[in-house]
Amino acid sequence: MKKLTFSKKQLLIRCIELLFILIWVFPLLWMVITSLKLEEEVITRTFSFWPSHPTFANYIKAFTSTYIVNWMGNSFIVSLMAMLLTLIIDAPIAYAFAKIRFKGRNILFWAVMGGMMVPFQVLIVPLYLQFNSFGLINTLAAAYLPRIALPIGIFILKQFYEGIPSDLEEAAFIDGASRYRIFAQIILPLGQSAMATVIILSFINAWNDFLWPLIVINDTIKYTITVGIANFQGTHGTQYSLIMAGAAVASIPQIFFYIFFRKKIIAGIATSGMKG
Amino acid sequence: MIPGNKDTRDGIIFSLPFLVVYLAFMIYPLLSGLYISFFKWDILSTASFVGLDNYRTLFSDEKFYSSLWHTLQFVLMTTPTLLVAGFLMALAITGSSPWKGLMENVFFFPYIFSMTVVSTLWAWLMQKDWGIFNQVLINIGQNPVSWLTNERLAMWSVALTTLWWTAGFNMVLFGAGIKQIPKEIYESAAIDGATYIQSVRHITIPLVSSTTVLCLILQIIASFNVFGQVYVMTGGGPHGTTRVLVQYIYETGFKFFKMGYSAAMSYILFLIILMVSILQYTLLGRKENA
Amino acid sequence: MKKQILLVVLAAILASGMLFAQAAPETKAEGPIEITFWSLFTGGDGEFFDAMVKEFNASQSEIVMKNDMVKFDNYYTKLTTALAAKTAPDVVVVHQGNLLNYVPSGSLLALDSYVDATTLADFQQAPLDACRFDGKLFSLPFDVHPIVMYYNKDLMAKAGITKVPQSAQEFIEASQKVKQATGKWGTAIDNTTGVYKAYTLARLFMSMIAQQGGSLLNADATAPAFNNAYGEAALKWLQDLVHVYKVNPTELDYDAAMNTFKLGEAAFYFNGVWATGTLEQTAGLNFGAAPLPPIMGGEAAWAGSHTLAIPVQKNQDPKRVEAAMTFINWMTSHGEMWAKAGHIPTRKSVAQKSEMKALPYRADYAAAAAFALPTPRTAAWEEIYGTLSDKLEFAVTKNQNPKAALADMEQTVKNIIASY
Q: What is the ipTM, given to two decimal places?
């Protein structure tokens, strides 16, 4: 008797879980379904769930009548550069915060963390004028440079580096290794999983950036995909099936990115929470 | 820590690359933003110094208050729901479900999509006449709902979208926290006859409190900065009832070109976020230490 | 993991390579001069515009025009920041109502010395005058786009309406008849914010005040002038369509209003003439177009006007200015192509062209250009326009007391004007 209720409860829980899985997947599924319909089938009083005549017309239109391929390429460049530069500047300072007892460390740390709270809108006008004086308006470099100072990245790396036992460092030091060698040969290799997280966060961050690239890039062909898709919406009036096709195409790289780096992404974000 | 007292020198050298970038792209524009906030400037003409006028105007601007209030509404709607949702998801993916791996992936997946994609997608799902939500309602004999054009619902709809989009991030953080808890604690509790709910309440929740603080701070900062979803989904409507502060700042600065006023408002928002974060940190930090 | 890092580094090197390739200066041999242009035609008229630019490039070999389309929402943000940084393109579109945001700061080039008298004489007087400030010409009008009324002929026939309604009375009777006979809506006036604000309400409000002889702002656009009987009548009419006669749906946004009319679910639809091109492409829609009826007695209709202007550059290259002027001249004198999108051309010679006369609908509302209301001349217009739309949306949705609504709107507009 007891066993029966137990399994009934289990069944109920499984059902709830399944329901939520479906709820979470459905919007994406609907994006694809809509994109395979013709607009006449979308804006109609006779609703049908599946497309009656599945068509790739919207995808063909997205590829042929817009610069969607260029936009994706641009987003890739912007995100890769942002991610690489973020790593280069974030890892050393995170190490300094974690392991080096230098004067003013705490104040500096909080000054850096405070950067997380600055609404980006505050910075846009001064940044724009600054980039203009560098002559970088309408370049992809302008799209990623302001995004490479990533305080959360420092936070994640610092958390991780703090967990690396100091014995390792001290032993290396006694063997005559300099701070730079310790950093390069012990800390960096050990911190790979945290670094992967930072890589991914900065990639996603840069990929999703909207307002800044919108303002700083002028030529349609140089747009990033987020800006391109937002414009896409307007150029053809509101055509839902076309917009959904564009959104689906725009998401393909992220989906691949996720499939390949899934474990790292999740493990990485998790590290930051461990001893927060 | 390491003998040979070069810590200060090394600290500076290791910090330098970041600090240069930080000064150039954060501190400098931040300070020039402050400078701009004392001027009346349309970005094209010569700026004229107005002292604290922009800040004075702000305190009697009805639109500033309503936008701030809408932002607060969004913070109040999303912070508890996204934390609870993330926590429940984390319980699900750390429990005994045969699908926990699948759930982890499915719940986290939306987080990787860009704001534009998520917002246009949900605006389409919630479209009043042809969106799938209302089509389902009509098919089961209910009245269609104005998800995005009804003033009582619009902000909730945006919050719901945000929940779908980012709750997975909180789930991963909480999941990591829960996995840190030694199994023995649960086992001994089970021996003492604790139910699942009891052990969640008395073991899990207290032991992930540091994660909760982290999530809470990150979530509040993110929610205060909300802009994209609202901008794409409701455009601030109906009749301005979902216009959030960042949107008002953006419009003031980049639609009406009142740069000084826009900068002044940004500073107030910055101060609010800073204060809330410090308050949180000290309050929750103290509780944790006690 | 090592492999992965290697991969990332490789990819980055590749990426930076591409970057430098992009950053390399465009060394060009002698050839056609390339000039750039930003436009904001994303409301369905963009496709027609693209076709025109293509035709222009094909028509001659000296100039290549590169057109970048920016979503209407973001257009002025980009234009203004680019003007401030002196990185704006060679030619830009500016609405007549937005010129005042750029003229006082000297961001636009005065065009008087570049246009000859014959060309000037070919432009319609009113839209041309709207581009003049202190006697100087800062842009040339490309089109006029008044708000007009579209009507569904099938629905009207079903309801037994034979004549396009003119007065407020006729209009409401017709709408009610349609509702009774067909169960469809009488009117589809958007009254809530979607992708766009409920600008249609502001446009109609402004038009109907003018139809009674009033105006939205005073003559020099320094104070609101709508808190009176004119404003009350206009607002009340907009409210009553929804709440008293119940012939217009509530919570209708711009896209939904357009779709309602497209699907044949409303008999009367009000929008700018730019909707004509899109409506024409809708299969099975039997519609007509007419100037905004004199609902409040007189004839007046809100109208916008796209004008073409040349930004001031750091080093103004006379060759590029000349090329830009050639482009502007070509575009305005081929207005019949632009009319396909629905807009009303601004040059007298265009109106005479047979292609122009062959276009359906346009002739029906071309008369509207004669009583088009120019946008008030104030730098605060953009904010006033948006705020009024929000407030009208509220007043119509909530059926707010018109007197209270107008008083509130008056105070708000006063504050806005004071803040510029």
A: 0.85
